[in-house]
Automatic annotation (TrEMBL):
Residues 99-203 form the Fe2OG dioxygenase domain. GO terms for molecular function: dioxygenase activity. InterPro entries: AlkB-like, AlkB-like_sf, ALKBH3, Oxoglu/Fe-dep_dioxygenase_dom. PANTHER family: ALPHA-KETOGLUTARATE-DEPENDENT DIOXYGENASE ALKB HOMOLOG 3. This is Alpha-ketoglutarate-dependent dioxygenase AlkB. The keyword Oxidoreductase applies. Gene3D superfamilies: Alpha-ketoglutarate-dependent dioxygenase AlkB-like (2.60.120.590). It comes from Nostoc punctiforme FACHB-252. Keywords: Dioxygenase, Oxidoreductase. Coiled coil: none annotated.
C-alpha cells in the first residue's frame, strides 16, 4: 500500500501518515454511496455567548454509550455501527495497529462548509489524549468526494497545506493533538460535496 510518512519530509515534520490510495476508486465510490444513507444532521454550537449552526453536517456511529461532547456544547450520541463502517474500522485497525470505538462523519456541502483550527483532545478520547506518549490516542480519517484543502500546523507555527483525495486515509499519531492544530478552511472556489469519516478512540461506553 502506498504510504507517505510526513515524519520523513524535510520541510514538514508532521506526526501524521498519509495513505493516498487506502481505498480503490471502486471501494471509495461505494463507500461514498453508503454515506448517502447515514443519518446526517446539522447541530448547533454555542460560541462566544451565541448559538449558531455548525458549518457542516455531522453524524456519529460507534459502540453503545460512547457519547462525544465537543466545544462544551455539541453532544453526539452514536448510532450502532453499520456493517460497512465496522468493516472499514477493522481494515484501518489492521493497517495501522490503532483501535477505534466511534466514527464521526463530517459532510462539507459547499465551499462555505468548514471546520476551524482545533485539536481533537476531548477527555472521552483518553486520560491524557493530548500528551505525546505511547498511551495517548490517535485519529484516522477517510476522505471521500471532492478534494478540499486540509491544513495542519504546530501550535504557534506555520501551516502545511495539503489535499486529501477521494479514498485516502490520514492518520494523526499519538501526541499530534497535543502539539498541532488542524482545519479545513472555507473556500470561494466552486467545490462539490466532501465527506470525511474520522475514526476515534473512546474510554467510556459499553464494551
Ligand atoms: O474533514 C477533515 O478532514 C477534518 C475533520 C476534523 O478535523 C474533525 O473531525 O475534527
Amino acid at each position: 500500500m502506498k504510504q507517505m510518512s510526513l515524519f520523513d519530509e524535510p520541510t514538514a515534520v508532521l506526526p501524521v501518515t498519509y495513505y493516498p490510495e487506502f481505498l480503490s476508486k471502486q471501494e471509495a465510490d461505494e463507500l461514498y454511496q453508503h454515506c448517502q444513507e447515514l443519518q446526517w444532521q446539522q447541530n448547533q454550537i454555542r460560541m462566544l455567548g451565541k448559538t449558531m449552526p455548525v458549518p457542516r453536517l455531522e453524524c456519529i456511529y460507534g459502540d453503545e454509550g460512547c457519547d462525544y461532547l465537543y466545544s462544551k456544547s455539541v453532544l453526539l450520541k452514536p448510532l450502532p455501527w453499520t456493517g460497512t463502517l465496522a468493516k472499514l474500522r477493522d481494515s484501518i485497525t489492521a493497517a495501522t495497529g490503532y483501535s477505534f470505538r466511534i466514527v464521526i462523519g463530517n459532510q462539507y456541502r459547499t465551499g462555505t462548509d468548514s471546520i476551524g483550527w482545533h485539536a481533537d483532545k476531548e477527555s472521552s478520547m483518553g486520560i491524557a489524549p493530548a500528551m505525546p506518549s505511547a498511551t495517548s490516542r490517535t485519529n484516522a480519517s477517510i476522505s471521500l468526494g471532492s478534494v478540499r484543502k486540509f491544513q495542519i500546523k504546530p501550535i504557534g507555527g506555520k501551516p502545511t497545506d495539503f489535499w486529501l483525495e477521494h479514498g485516502s486515509l490520514l492518520v494523526m499519531h499519538p501526541g499530534c493533538q497535543a502539539t498541532h492544530l488542524h482545519q479545513v478552511p472555507k473556500t470561494n472556489k466552486v467545490v462539490g460535496t466532501r465527506i470525511n469519516l474520522t475514526f476515534r478512540p473512546h474510554v467510556g461506553g459499553k464494551r
